Amino acid sequence: MDGLDDVMAYLRRAARAAGKEHLLDAEADIGESVDDLLADDMRRLAIARHSSFTNSLPPLYTGMTFGAWRDRASLSDAVSQVREWAELYPLVDAGLFLYGKERGTGKTHLAIAAGHVLATKGYRVKLIDVVAMLNRIRNGFESQQPRIDVEGIARWSDILILDDLGAEKQSPWVSEQLYLLINTAIARQAALIITSNLDYGELASRMDDRVVSRLIGATDRVVVDDTDYRLEQHKRRKR
Q1: 68 and 177 housed in the same domain
Q2: How many CA atoms lie within 13 A of 103 on its CB side?
Q3: Which of 33, 136, 194, 228 is deepest in the core (most CB within 10 A)?
């Protein structure tokens, strides 16, 4: 069987599995039929990937989309940068490092909103709460529960969102876990979206230099700095 026969045999198996073998019959326009089949598969993959991402989010986070963002003039540039990055991906040079020293400014919202856009493109997007992940690993060691596969998380993901990096208590063990996660993701060319209340320099004073060096090389900083929006909402409700 020559190369063309091999290709057609593969396409016929794929079409049969999808119940669309009729698209490959002799009377059909083969090129157009295959294109339609692949386009349909890509649409179904994108729907499945977005559903998987949404279902993996905590309930509070599922509605964090660009459409649900409440405009604040001070953050308009940051929102535009993140939205444009998500729309252009994969035609970008690096991931995102969303930094703001105040809590409640919307870093997590913007990271997840970008995740929604990327998941609808068919990418595998994973949100990791850094502190929660490290606590689960520790608890697994102490209770002899199955270990979380840190490398597996990075290998599985096309886009890895690390939320609240730098909030964890530091130790050699923590640095080892974070280096393993981040280095594996970068080695696989997965894009990183980081949120943090600490800038690169502040992280360098707390974390292993290898981790911060990887982050600087793999992400571009976007400043998301404003007053604590959650606190402002609370104050308005109390009035």
Answers
A1: yes
A2: 7
A3: 194
